[in-house]
Sequence to fold (621 residues):
Amino acid sequence: MSDLPLIQADRAVPPPAATTSTGGRRRRLRLLSRTDRVVITLMVLVPLLLVTGFVWLPAAATVLLSGTNWDGIGPLNEIEFIGARNYSDVVNIYPPFVPAIQHNLLWLAALFVVATPFGMFLAVLLDKELRGSRFYQTALYLPVVLSLALIGFVWQLLYSRDQGLINAVFGSNIDWYGDSSVNIWAVMIASGWRHVGYIMLLYLAGLKGVDPSLREAAAVDGASESRTFFRVVFPVLRPINIIVLVVTVIESLRAFDLVWVVNKGRNGLELISALVTQNVVGEASRIGFGSALATIMLVVSLVFITIYLATVLRENRQ
Amino acid sequence: MSTATVTRRTEGGAEGPTRRKLTPLRLLLHGFLIAVALIWLFPIAWAVLTSLRSYEYTAANGYVSLGGWTLDNYVTAWQTAEFGKHFLNSVYITVPAVLLTLFLASCVAFVIARFSWKLNLVLLGIFTAANLLPQQALLIPLFRMFTEVPLPEFMSDSELLYDSYWGLILINVAFQCGFCVFVLSNYMKALPRDLYEAAMVDGASIWRQYWQVTMPLCRPALAALATLEVTWIYNEFFWATVLMRTGDKFPVTSSLNNLRGEFFTDNNLVSAGSVLVAIPTLVIFFMLQRHFVRGLTLGASKG
Fold:
């Protein structure tokens, strides 16, 4: 999914603080007419209800359901609480669970160790106002505008066993998407292809916001370029670094579309998100399992979302 | 600022040493970047290339060859996959969803930026975080909810929120609002506050301040967000996959999955289909690149 706020990029440049005085609050409220107050309430309430009803309540319901034995079909009043049994079942008697956790971690590691640093590295190179920089940037973030589902199809042209380019060039006979010992790597390369451009863009915007006088000062002091980057620029970009880290974690948790178009997350491509979906819309609907898995995802992502919010909101207030 | 640096550097370079010394390094750098850029473009270029060749030719000569140029794949893909219908479905979902997202998000952002209530930060947090939750984690209750909420027949022939355009529009709006609230509230906070003082003196209501003062000034931000949101909602795959049932109603990105079977044996068709699906986003990207990049880096320019 591409809908992570990439915007944090701009956090490197603190926006001009809003000139407000908390003391004027009461006075200001009284200045508002009745209609104004109704309008303000509606302006906030309608979107808030939508987000609460479609995002936050379902999230809370997921957590609640994970402690019940609901089958997803029966009436809601027959729900029984069964404590942590779903969780122990998931861990003990659900074979795809362990591979899914492993794949999610592997996915995270691949993005974190390879794709993210590579994107950052490219951003640092492209920040040098090179000739042709526009072309390089465009080429790198072109994949960002494609959906992950579509990327699955585009890479099939390279990966397919009988008609794929890789096998044609190397004379191999591997089903890159189908063979459960390699397919996770194949989809991770495809997803990394997109992730690099995304991180490059985020980081480049952050770099552009770094006060040039910092670098000039370092240059005057005779610091080498790499030294300047690691000792001066990188620490200044701390908020962006945190955001890039969070974006990477959340992207790897949400990885779904790609494995779903390849084989619906089976046979070597198990991911938590795919297991949740299989348990709801698949042939065997096991709501308890699904909710327990979904809750695990929620908890992990909420940890990182909190870090993210703390970072951007702090930047925001400055 | 950059012009000054450039001039200074050229002047220094006239004598030679610093500029000369850098040249091999710079060449290496360009070589590296060109290589990376070409590798990055390759999968897309390959898809376009494959889509333009006939299956018979590539089956006989292999894919590492040249020849067999044809546009037939596009015709066949368009017809078998009924792309016309699916593109229209995407329009039905994307256009209202983007407009509604921008409208609702700008309302909230306006209140957050215009007033300095303590709750504003909480509000901002609620919206921004909602955009980051993994969608799959919400699926179970949402699925049940969608199959329970009735809609009148003139709105959806399923008579439910499930399997209706309305449901997809709402879920997309709810999910995308957070991002737009975050961007717009930042943008609006940077607008001069005297505007509102002046508007208040003129006796303008809150609604007029929002609609006639703030919104026109936010046009650049709205254009950038609209570009991004069109791309994202068009690219949205998950919700339509799980909250739709009737194949005819799928938007184009989610319909991809149903094509797998039909296209499976013919990569040239797959590539033609992929290119067709990519065209709207690529057109947006190349025509509105300025807005697209701006949306992603908004704020950096306003400092």
Notes: The CA atoms of residues 35 and 48 of chain B lie 20 Å apart.
